[in-house]
What does this fold into?
Amino acid sequence: METLKRKFPFLLLLLIIPALGFIYTVLNENPRRATSISTALDQHIPFIPVFIIPYIIWYAYVLGYLIYFCFKDTKVYIKSLITITIGECICFIIFFYFQTTVNRPEISPEVPFYHLVNFIYENDRPFNCFPSIHVLTTYVIMLASLHIKNKHPLHSILIQGMGSLIILSTLFVKQHVIWDMVGSMFLVSYIYGIIFELVNIRIAQKAKTVEK
It folds into this structure.
């Protein structure tokens, strides 16, 4: 209980997540001229309905592991949240000025997991694709987990394994194309690297001050 009291102010920072979600929804409901950046390779990627499961698990995956990071290492948690916030804000700017779209397959009730796929298709319009928010946030969790010490081996396997499935699911349920995935991973690597570099510099400066 004492730990929860200490961490509660930091957990309140998670309120930024629904705020970012609201901005995404506004942009998604206001489509402009959209461009397809699908490649020839994307045309050969099959539609695999079962991947809708990891695609939906993403919601719990990101929130759950951010909370986990908060209790395991608050600094990593804050860095992750900052990366997600900056990354999504950059995505929103791109969505506004360069909106892309994805061609979805026609599905019928006979398709496995039809109701889940149809739910996503009906509630998330095929816009705001590049870069992928799904991939961006998932990749942040995967990178951040590498800096969490003394975590259970199961978490190491689950974070990387489920994260990989979530990223692949964006392609296999035809919510995104390859460039959406690549763009997000590049963006996260760049932002996350900068944040850690700045934090490390600040820590080093403090250490020198203490030594003096």
